[in-house]
Amino acid sequence: MSTHIAAASGEIAETVLLPGDPLRAEWIAKTYLDDVTCYSQVRNMLGFTGTYRGERISVQGTGMGQPSISIYVHELLAEYGAKTLVRVGSCGGLLADVAIRDLVVGISAATDSSMNALRFEGFHYAPTADFSLVRAYVEKAEAAGARYHVGQIFSTDVFYHDRPELRDRLTQYGVLAVEMEAAALYTLAAKFDARAMAVCTVSDNLVTGEETSADERERTFAEMVELALDAVSA
Ligand SMILES: Nc1nc(Cl)c2ncn([C@@H]3O[C@H](CO)[C@@H](O)[C@H]3O)c2n1
Questions:
Q1: For the segment 163-209, what is each residue's pLDDT rounded down to a tens digit?
Q2: 85: which of 98, 106, 185, 234 lies 20 to 30 Å off by Cα?
Q3: Distance 179 CA to ligand 1 centre (A)
């Protein structure tokens, strides 16, 4: 058992999907996995292990923001031997053609968080996804005819920004979308020599003002998760 995850050694698979919402972790586990067990309910940040097409997969809620996901990812990597981590989340589109319901694969993740500024004091580290995971996901998305984008995303610490000009600058430099976790995930995966990727469904577009309805979010979330499961078990 680690400080925030009540799993015994061996209860967590080497491959872990990481939704922010623990109830989505439960939904993923119960919808797609067989022989599901719940290995942790600490702080209601639920974690499950099951099998997908015979392969062990775990699903762990991470909460919102880089400090929260960092706690779970650090413990999964340092104490449970996780090797492949895929964040499945939502994001806000920053370019007009990153439309609601599209999928965004973050090759890299810029950030306004002080976490990496302190960690890499003096230079700007570039948190980067694992290419083999990106390639596998894109192959599945292509085969499924899904609308997807691959590029840089932005992991902010501030959901309610009071600096709209920052968003405009990100758009000006081609950043696809904003979310709140990927930069920390990529940095920790690199630290522990693991593979990581973040894929998000576009829940709203900050340029056009379009927003998805609740059931649209559920549908595109399901498509994103199915492609992620196929990509990691390919
Ligand atoms: N800053 C921010 N902005 C927009 Cl437009 C978002 N759309 C989805 N998220 C994700 O959803 C949660 C915030 O609602 C966070 O976990 C974040 O990763 C967003 N986070």
A1: 889 999 999 999 999 999 999 999 999 999 999 999 999 999 999 99
A2: 98
A3: 5
ipTM over 0.95 threshold: yes
Q: Ligand 1 centre from 55 Cα, in Å?
A: 30
Q: Give the ligand 1 atom nearest the CA of 65.
A: 16
Give residues (CB < 6 A) around ligand 1.
Answer: 20, 64, 89-92, 156, 159, 178-181, 203-204, 206
What is the fold of 15-232?
A: Rossmann fold (3.40.50)
Q: Which two tokens stand for residue 107?
A: 């090759």
CA of 54 to the centre of ligand 1 (A): 33
Domain residue spans of the chain: 15-232
